[in-house]
TrEMBL record:
EC numbers for this chain: 1.4.3.19
Name the record gives this protein: glycine oxidase
Alphabetically ordered keywords of this record: Oxidoreductase, Thiamine biosynthesis
SUPFAM superfamilies according to UniProt: FAD-linked reductases, C-terminal domain (SSF54373), FAD/NAD(P)-binding domain (SSF51905)
Ranges where the FAD dependent oxidoreductase domain occurs: 8-347
Pathway as given in its UniProt record: Cofactor biosynthesis; thiamine diphosphate biosynthesis
Catalytic reaction annotation: glycine + O2 + H2O = glyoxylate + H2O2 + NH4(+)
Keyword Oxidoreductase: yes
Species per Swiss-Prot/TrEMBL record: Paenibacillus baimaensis
Amino acid sequence: MNTRSTSAIIIGGGIIGCTIAWELARSGIRCTLVDKGALNQEASTAAAGMLGAQVETHHPGAFYELCRLSQQLYRDWSEEIHQISAISPQYIAQGILRAALHTDDEQELKSRLPWIQNAEWLSTSEMLAMEPGISPHILGGLRFAQDHQIHPVQLAKALQAGLHKLGCEIREWTPVLGLIERQGRIEGVRTAEGSFYADHVIICAGAWGSSLTDPLGLELPIFPVKGQCISVRTEAPVLQGTVFTQGCYIVPKLDGSMIIGATQEEAGFNKCCHVNVVSDLFGKAVKLLPSLGQAELVSTWAGLRPGTRDGLPFMGTSTQAPGLTVAMGHYRNGILLAPATGKLIKQLILGEQTTIDLTPFSPDRARAV
Ligand SMILES: Cc1cc2nc3c(=O)[nH]c(=O)nc-3n(C[C@H](O)[C@H](O)[C@H](O)COP(=O)(O)OP(=O)(O)OC[C@H]3O[C@@H](n4cnc5c(N)ncnc54)[C@H](O)[C@@H]3O)c2cc1C
């Protein structure tokens, strides 16, 4: 394929849209990235940045394989972005400790051991040897040696700078109002600035995605799941790496702050932070890391994860809307899943065999359930 004569419009400039634009532009495809606001102002910069392929997966299957593919791609992908943009996305390879505070949690964690890779069970004293600040009341936990982290805001800055260098056209503050269909094929987008056409239209509109696909009769049940977070700072470091327990995680960043996350609420498109919710989250964090009780509050925020009923993202093309490629519904794991999504969607657009089978993620599956 002569990629230089091929063009693509990408709707939505969060991590997923930016990564797809990155991969396509690197392959020589002319890309236009369109967002209703500024790039990366929604879920993608609300995230904590855990790359939790193992800590976030509760059973083997297609989702786990997708997570593992992305985990394997992450280091080289983030280095490439760093090189081209000259901005570090702050990839830190330090693993994640997943502590059990209750026996049911301990049992669930141990039940993963027969199938999960890169995990070992640590006793309470082994956990405390790694993280002396955590509560001695934990019942032990799993160490996920390959679950690393990145700084989502730095990653977003780096991707944006890199996209400019790669010649991607970026149209911010340009809401897409509708998809243009001609002779049964999607071939463009309608905006207040006019209509734009391309060989490929790729929709990555996060939690807002279904408002554009519903009018086509393409049912993609994607809905917002609010996550409230807190950032705190302590005078001296109290944590070496990321610690995670049921309903709460604490991710230390290079600037000395720690992100505490996150709630999961189906509350529409409201992004307010509520005192009772944030204080409940903080209580969970203090239970895991008691010295946080004295921490300085830096900020609180909320973001809207794009959720799906079966927990799997929608990735691929649909028989309902030829010409349209979908990459939405990455829920709790869009930062982790970005490099794999970018690679797989690029393979689809170039007509190549995809590295993994995309059938479980098909946009057509929603009609079957
Ligand atoms: C609190 C919180 C913590 C998280 N922590 C992690 C984590 O540690 N690790 C991890 O892997 N994931 C994490 N996630 C999940 C991750 O942030 C999301 O899965 C990911 O950001 C989704 O990316 P996206 O590009 O699909 O969506 P978004 O970042 O929401 O981007 C969608 C974009 O589409 C644009 N858009 C929507 N409609 C239109 C339209 N009509 N026209 C033009 N543009 C449009 C929006 O303006 C937006 O910029 C977290 C999420 C939250 C909220």
